[in-house]
Amino acid sequence: MIKKICCIGAGYVGGPTMAVIAYHCPEIDIHIVDSNNERIDLWNSDNLDNIPVKEPGLSKIISKVRGKNLFFSNEVDKYIDLCEMIFIAVNTPTKTSGEGKGMAADLKNIINCAKQVSLASKSDKIIVEKSTLPVRTAEKIKEILENNKREKINFEIISNPEFLAEGTAIQDLFKSDRVLIGADQTESGKIAQNKLIDIYKKWIPEEKIIKTNVWSSELSKLASNAMLAQRISSINSLSALAEKSGAKIDELSMAIGKDHRIGNKFLNASIGFGGSCFQKDILNLVYISRQYGLDEVADYWHNVVKINEFQKDRFSQIIIRNIETSSNQTVSVLGWAFKKDTNDSRESSSIAVTSNLILKGLTVNVYDPLIKINQIYHDITAYLEFKNINQKNITRLLKKLSVKDNLNDCIIETDAIAFLTEWDKFLNIKWDKFSKNQHIKNKPKIFDGRGIIDYEYVSSLGYQIYQIGNGDNSIN
Ligand code: UDX
Ligand code: ADP
């Protein structure tokens, strides 16, 4: 029976996952460690509104387990040594330089963790890969562990990919569709696998716990995300066709989703998927396929990402061609998070769309209920740098950007409003009230990238609307 767990990485994956394990397993002490001191301080903050990951239900669980059997610390080495099972839940973003730039996963954090684990361990450890990793990463981790270890100890590596989606993380962890545990089919591999199964069995029905080999487990994570993203790119590609042909994408989604073999999930047309997983994992899949000489496979999956880029650009171009770019017009970008109910903006389509707008000389106001101003500037700067724009130009472009903390300001004083995140708050905008104070000539054009505007009603108030996938659009 495992009694002490250490989780390296106090982020979107490590935080909620360990909180839920701690909640269901009061007999296990869990220590979440992170090299980012500021993040650890926020997790330890007395005011639960300050914890760094915003997930419905998370602060309630933290209030029950923190200080009892869940602890946050920056003493990484100490807790590696103390615990029998080490989860690795560090970020593995797409590489921004070197071989595989823009495609392969950057394993720098994983490699550092493996080195740290091997140097700090004085007894046998079970290492659990939680971060999404390229296939056969466990082999690399094993190599690093074996090469750096100081004592004659055994490291067993198992893969237990996380399938939680942000915004529903707690719900997903409580009622997982499945828990995947991949291990070497050796004697010690099976023992480690069973130790982790015993933990999940506390609240997950046994039939939902799937045992595989390590490589199937690693590849399943990439494949699941690729298949989900593929559905979004499929519906987004059809949204362009619907606009041209007079069809309506929501009617199409409903009609095809009724076929139980297709199902109705993940068929909402949008400005493109964001988040830390989909693009990164597909690019990774593409990179790996190419390495194995499977160019057709690589090209097939790469197109899912290409359609996503197309959708972001298409949406930007529709705004640009309908707004007078020469006379310093303003566009309000509503929503910075990559989806509602999260404070995460990684790979959010808002970043690409806003960059396209400021690059065309438009002034952009941004409003998001959760994302902080510094993060917004950081995201745009990193994106422009990745696009090889020099610092002088970035400074000039950033002057075109202003972050607002009031939604109403973004509706009243603007030439266009672009909806990029489907926040519930945006569903309650009092268009009739705004409409009375906006002369027809001053009414902003509305660009709905999430299909959240009641098209008929808002049009009847005199607004011109572009809605993704709507063949009736008054703007196109
Ligand atoms: C995803 C997977 O769902 C999860 O299983 C995995 O562990 C991590 O990656 P996440 O990135 O948190 O989770 O969000 P998800 O809900 O999948 O949405 C990803 C993106 O797709 C968002 O930008 C969302 O707005 C977009 N999306 C989703 C659509 O555009 N249309 C849809 O129908 C569904
Ligand atoms: P994810 O969505 O994968 O959880 P996050 O960026 O939210 O990604 O969290 C990952 C966390 O891992 C960050 O807080 C980061 O500081 C931490 N981290 C990365 N590398 C290391 C390391 N070598 N040691 C300790 N913590 C690390």
Largest sheet, in brief, is: 6 strands, parallel
Q: Give the number of DSSP strands.
A: 14
Bound ligands, each once:
uridine-5'-diphosphate-xylopyranose, adenosine-5'-diphosphate
- Proper CATH architecture of the largest domain: 3-Layer(aba) Sandwich
N/C terminus separation: 62 Å
Radius of gyration: 24 Å
Q: Strand order across the biggest sheet?
A: 3-2-1-4-5-6
Describe what this molecule looks like in 3D.
The chain is an alpha/beta fold and 476 residues long. It folds into two domains: 4-212, Rossmann fold; 228-467, Rossmann fold (3-Layer(aba) Sandwich). It is 46% helix and 13% strand. It has helices spanning 14-24, 37-43, 58-65, 76-82, 108-120, 137-148, 169-174, 187-200, 214-245, 249-257, 278-291, 295-322, 349-359, 373-386, 391-398, 407-412, 424-427, 431-437, 455-460; strands at 4-8, 29-33, 70-73, 85-88, 125-129, 155-159, 179-182, 209-212, 330-334, 363-367, 401-403, 416-419, 445-448, 465-467. Strands 3-2-1-4-5-6 form a six-stranded parallel beta sheet, with helices on both faces. Helix 6 links the parallel strand 5 (125-129) and strand 6 (155-159). Helix 4 (76-82) crosses helix 5 (108-120) and helix 11 packs antiparallel against helix 12 (295-322). The termini are far apart. The mean pLDDT is 94. The structure holds uridine-5'-diphosphate-xylopyranose and adenosine-5'-diphosphate. Uridine-5'-diphosphate-xylopyranose binds next to helix 9.
